[in-house]
Amino acid sequence: MSKRISIFLIFLSVNLSLYSQQHSINISHSIARQWNEVLLEGIRGDFARPTVHARNLFHSSIAMYDAWALYNLDKATPFFSEKYGDEVHTLFNTSTLGNTALTKTISYAMYNILRHRFNESPGYDRTKRYMDELMSFLDLNIDDADLNYENDNNPITLGNYIASKIIEYGATDGANEANGFSNAYYTPVNEALIPIESGNSTLSNPDRWQPLSLEVFIDQSGNVISGNATEFLSAEWGNVTPFALTDNDYVIKSRNGNDFKVYNDPNSPPLLNDSITSEFYKWGFSLVSIWGAHLSSEDNTLIDISPATMGNISINDFPKEYANYSNFYNLKDGGDIGKGRTMNPITNNPYSTNLVKRGDYARVIAEFWADGPDSETPPGHWYSILNEKVSDELTEKKISGSNQTISDLEWDIKSYFLLGGAMHDAAISAWSVKGWYDYIRPISSIRYMADLGQSSDNSLSNYNENGIPLVTDLIEIVEIGDPLSGNQNENVGKIKLYTWKGHEYVTNTNTDYAGVDWILAEDWWPYQRPSFVTPPFAGFVSGHSTFSRAAATILTLFTGSEYFPNGMGTHLAKKNEFLVFEEGPSEDIELQWATFYDASDQCSLSRIWGGIHPPADDIPGRFIGDTVGKKAFNYGTTFFKPYYEESKTEQLAYPNPINTENPFIITNTNSTDTFQLFSCIGQVVEFETVYFNKNSRQTELKFQAVNKGIYFIKHNKNRMYKVVVE
Prior knowledge:
The protein has three domains: 17-178, Vanadium-containing Chloroperoxidase, domain 1 (Up-down Bundle); 183-442 and 535-636, Orthogonal Bundle (Vanadium-containing Chloroperoxidase, domain 2), CATH 1.10.606; 643-725, Immunoglobulins (Immunoglobulin-like, Sandwich). It is 32% helix and 12% strand. The protein has helices at 17-21, 31-44, 50-71, 79-84, 99-117, 124-137, 149-152, 155-170, 278-291, 358-370, 377-390, 408-437, 442-452, 543-559, 596-609, 615-636; strands at 217-218, 224-225, 250-255, 258-263, 302-304, 343-344, 349-350, 355-357, 475-477, 495-500, 516-520, 569-573, 589-593, 653-654, 664-667, 675-679, 684-685, 689-693, 698-702, 709-715, 719-725. The strands form eight sheets. The protein has a four-stranded antiparallel beta sheet, with no helix packed on it. Strands 17-16-20-21 form a four-stranded antiparallel beta sheet, with no helix packed on it. Strands 9-10-11 form a three-stranded antiparallel beta sheet.
């Protein structure tokens, strides 16, 4: 089932065949939203490159933000001109121009950037038609390329100029755009794995990434990639100029005479060749195989996937040591420690039970969060969530809990700007880690360990300390008489897995599903398309976990609530329509999330069920995403002018309850304000940080050293806030 956005268009012109056939743009949406939808279509038609498209989303968001800011200097400071010294706002007088002029400026900026960025995309012809159709509807000449805006105060040439500066900057930002974003010095240490052959005899280092050799490699967007072995995408992305990250956020590591910038360094993942962490390595990768046992509609285990029982995990609940991961993830039954929440705090009604088959749920979330065959990649997916699950559901647009309603255009411009900055920095952080640690993927590790044998019983002949651990009914040894033993008992002594059987059991993807049974471990496949298998880059850390946590943090801080509008976000996967490479699900499945963080956490788990990541890739990505999201929000909002006049005194304080990792925010404050924290029995409690943002006039209080409980914040002499620290 396609997950493309379906939105209605009323055109006054008649030549709109492309839109009428497949997609349309709602002219009631802001001009920023319309161009964002065109950009997402461009990403869906391009190669699936999360880093590159995080950058495209960011640069496009800058262009629209700066165009809007130049027309609204009382509400915002232009980012690009402020950061890079291009004083365009001193040369252009927008005071005599209106919304029509702003629409022209945004449109020409976006048209030129998208034309430049996607002109070598395999889907460029279609993307270009979308761009041209929108320009035609707006009655704008696509050939108007004048850049001398200061001579005639022309909004069209201003848009062209903004685009030219973004394109110029993109040639020098470290992404190596001129050479197709290729790596300059990274090389893999392992020979390529041929997945259609059994085992993994070519692997020399089980702690490092292994390319794949496929007869046909089709990326997540459905594009055929030429070449035999997959190349590591963006191994040197730490060289790209970030948004909010600073020099204090990275370390430089060297290998073979080459430097790697590593942002938000999580330190090493578990290594099979390390005596201290090898047990965590074996546990994590074997868990991926075990969760594969859930990937069948014949698994009749019923689970409640409503917010009543899933989600509601604080960042303080994430394990910080690999030794504690087994307490967070359920090895045999799948899932995590999420306890859910009884009541919907927005509607004040209890969350209803949502019972589904675990085998349907696991497959649906593996497909949904992988973004499907028409992928807008993870950063684009969160733009779609922002557009469809947040912006479209809100009756009033208020930033960060403000009491001031803003226009749809201002909402879209600012949310895209902040989310774009966060997605860009998440890509830089995650891929800088991937490039340096160069960590192995499950398909390589599981097959390799199984080739060595088992590490649980040293009395058996197939014992190897680096072999895969045995788990009764899930990871066992093939014995004589076993259906897998072979005609000549050639497989006796090998490792077998009770897991998803793989693609050879799916002849017709519209009617067949593989199911779960015992297979030889040497033939294990992740729950991905056979022409894709695994993303073409290292596993540690998970990009999905990093992007999703950063996005959830931005949406929480920007909306002023961690909850989806009305306390519930949903997505419906229709029976036997949603899954791509096999039939399913066996019944309609409605995914449900109370909060943005719940959705983010589900995304992280989906990559384990999908056979892409072990837990060691997941949690560090969540921590990095949390850090990146907060930095992007705090830095990005410094370009926003205050929502309140100085004379106004109404304030909002949020979120509540709060955990010790997140800031408590009080709006409409001054730099001279004072704050005291008291326990429920009146004792003064020390807290660590007070941060005042002069542009947004918000104060952040951080309670990292504060114990859980009920507290009171005294603001100046006349205000008191009750806050619950979880």
